[in-house]
## 1
Amino acid sequence: MTATRSIRRARRRSVCAPTGFTLLETLVALAVFSMVVVPLMTGVSLHNQTRTTRESIVATCLLQQEEQRIRAFPQYIDPVRYRVVSSKTWVVRAETAGSRLVWCTLSVEKDGRQCGKVGFYVYRQ
């Protein structure tokens, strides 16, 4: 009878024993998880910053090229020009005001989003 009681007590303990993780196990799992996730999130963030920086550099270069072209030939100002850079289409828009001393505003768009804008005066003869 004593063996039966000890078996019943052991079964009761195993069935009624609290299940779950201890605080230490949870903290260790959280530390391991953060060591994996933080570098991944940093990489994603750097990728987005690199893409944005690359787009702003291309937009600035396109604006400078178009401004130099207009300053060299002020009589040939196109309202819209399409430029392809690295298989991506960029739209350069020009707005003018004035007849002899012309205020010219250039803006660059990619995928319908404005990436840069510049304004300057140019003299038409």
## 2
Amino acid sequence: MTDLTSNICQIIIFDEQCNASNYGVNTYVSQILDIFKNHVHIKLFHVVLFSSIKEVTFMRVNENTYMIKIPHYNGEKDEAHTIYFKNTIYLLRQYIDEKVHTIFHFNFLLTASFIDEIKEIFRSNLTVYTAHSILVPSGYKKISYKDDISPKVKDQAIAEGIKIEKSFLLKIDRICCLSDATKDFFYKVYEINESKLLKIKNGLKDRYKSIPQIEKKKIREKYNFKEHKSKLILYVGRLDYFKGLSYLIEAFEIILTKNKDYYLY
């Protein structure tokens, strides 16, 4: 178990270059980096996997923070995937002290074998995974997922994904769940030991910019909002099918049948 009271600690934060990382996950990772950036006894390594760059890059961001970008590989076969992660560990060993207490923080689903190799090489470590999303097929509560995935799950891609996700989670020491629903799912469906599950809600810096009333009025006029009557509903997620935008639009149509003074942005 990693001891944060020791003289030095390393936190390796794994990220990926993808749409999710450019939005919500990126905000989450940025918050973590910001929290620890001034702790002189903690070294931060922000590792970006599957990067679009052409070669491995290592840069110092500030006094105790470093960024390592590892290029994407060509091919999607399991063997290529395995080699990619083996090479990732080889690269990390050049920058990370294997004798120092280390926390490996994952923000995307990887492979169970990758976790095994990390634990084999970096003996004094703690692995943490933040579940920003989960693979939940329709009607999952009626299905009991054991080692052999229930035949009721018709979509084989989902079934295989669930098997990979569960095997990965079983290897992780601590799992951060952003909601009660996620924690409940992992405990009841994946049968993850409850002692490994932590509910830590998303958080942001407490920042607020006060806008004078005259500025608010100008903004409302710019977008043709009726003074004091218009109600604004703001969607702040990325424009992606998986975010359920179709449901949001359907719900908004119902609102408009009752009140025309609502706007969705």
